[in-house]
Amino acid sequence: MGMIETKTANAIRVLSADAIQKAKSGHPGLPLGCASAAYELWANHMRHNPADPKWVDRDRFILSGGHGSMLLYSLFHLFGYGDLSMEDLKNFRQIDSLTPGHPEYGHTVGVEATTGPLGQGMGMAVGMAMAEAHLASVFNKDDIKIVDHYTYVLGGDGCMMEGLSSEAFSLAGTLGLGKLIVLYDSNNISIEGNTDIAFTEDTAKRFESYGFGVFQVEDGNDFAAIGAAIEAAKADTERPLIVLHTQIGYGCPAKQGKASAHGEPLGEENIIAMKENLGWESMEPFYVPQDVYDHMAKVRESLKAPEEEWNARFAAYCEKYPEMKELWDQYHDKDLPKKLWDNEEFWSYEDKPQATRNLSGELLNKINKVVPNLFGGSADLAPSNKTNLKGEGDFSKADYSGKNLHFGVREQAMTAIGNGLVLHGGVIPYVATFFVFSDYMKPIARLSSLMKVPLIYVLTHDSIGVGEDGPTHEPIEQLAMLRAQPNFHVFRPADAKETAAAWYSAITSEKTPTALVLTRQNLPQLAGTGRDAVKGAYIVADSAKETPDAIIIATGSELSLAVEAKELLLKDGMDVRVVSMPCMDLFEEQSPEYKESVLPKAVRKRVAVEALSDFGWGRYVGLDGATVCMEGFGASGPAAQLFEKFGFTAERVAETVKSL
Ligand SMILES: Cc1ncc(C[n+]2csc(CCOP(=O)(O)OP(=O)(O)O)c2C)c(N)n1
Ligand SMILES: [Mg+2]
Questions:
Q1: pTM score of the predicted model
Q2: What is the DSSP letter of 186?
Q3: Active site residue: 112, 411, 498, 558, which one?
């Protein structure tokens, strides 16, 4: 390898160190340690075109160790992603800059996934590789392949320590995702010092046990060795791991190999020493030699060819297989699910008591007839979550065309994979487990919201209605937890019509993930419910009076209690309004006029009924209102008896209204 490669990798080091120094914060260790490997991968092995960052068949690259964001930004600047300028690098970590502290999807051109919470990038990469494998098996023909790309993920010791990576790679091994290439930045350092203090496993052996092929690169600055490992990994049709033995903070004599290189600026003097050590031409901050830019212009030019070749291939494919082109367009038509609004079958239901999880399962299968690219499953609870797509095969190593995913008992990996599937594009994924185990999904769901990724969460067994399994399995605070998360729609539907509305909202959502919180037990079909559920809250049974005597607000299984309580109260001369509020978040998005029409400020006697924690209801019931909610954990016993025991009866609701 020539001088210019080394010089370009050093430009990545210099830009990263200078930007972090100027910001007075950041993480130089990873960018310095991985500069050579990243340059080699991006310039000589990855099929990507900075001139068209959204090209569908590009190789994906995820920086799972998001703290090393300056590595990405330096690459973007040199490769020409989104014209990320020197000015942008100088604004690293400043408000509204294109170079925030950690890479943010949708904010900076070229960022494939928001990363920073360690381990999650690893899971998202597995999801992207699964999407590729699935779409390839659906669309590729023997003579023309139109889906054919790799997913590269780079993560360090921290990502390997996080349990999420074990979940994700264990599944990747089972699925034999040969086009997932994991690059492990093995520098034996994390924040507290040498990894020996807490992490002595043999990671290579661990991956071998998952069924990965392992390639070692002894010197993380040996371009030829890195390149050879990448090509060997590509040729490995199973699941390759490349262990890059690197030195954190490489190039900076006072810092390299030390934990102090991890997460603080190197210091002015150390940067000068680094530049001298690297033989840099100028001590001027942010100086990049012209020959590096000249070289990168040539590299950028060379990166255009694969997409041009793909465009020709895709055109030939469309001509030869017009019916497949039609299917391809359906897979990529974001508006297709909106057709469900006028689909009578979708909204139809049998008028008998039904569990909303069963209704959800039926709706999912109805959607599958209209929306061809549903792709999802459960963390080993599909029979309970009712998430199976009937007549569709299983996604497996033997057959990637199956649409039913089996995540195993791995809620974290499942959720990160779900995010990766959405980010990849081309499929509409859903993930499922018991509602109580949303605790295991929460940190990953948070990234769905942050990235504006509309992943669908099917969460069944939504209250003490779980019954005999008892308090370990009965959610209490999970509803409040998910409602507290910005940009997350939590739906708790009460019957068939509301469950359909919830699914409609979830599958047409473009920027917001949705949780469908569903019952295990049967619920009656109610008269006043309807599609207005998509507004988040609406009146299901009104008072005859212009100003109701009181308002009862309920969700899900407790809505029927509210309606019964209204009847009881009428006998006592009180005429109340019943409001169903299946989705607080969507109600908050409505106009002030609509909100006032449903919950008039003048009516201060308000009771909220929900068999979960009352946290959050204060906002709607106010100081003069009350709640009928769970105060502690549930108990083990038949569900109907538990509702009695914890006071979820129409009588108690009516009494509570009268007490105001
Ligand atoms: C889930 C999570 N826990 C903790 C952190 C805080 N954190 C950021 S980097 C880091 C150490 C990472 O070590 P390593 O991956 O080896 O990176 P290196 O120091 O080699 O750059 C920690 C604990 C985090 N970002 N995410
Ligand atoms: Mg490390």
A1: 0.98
A2: E
A3: 411
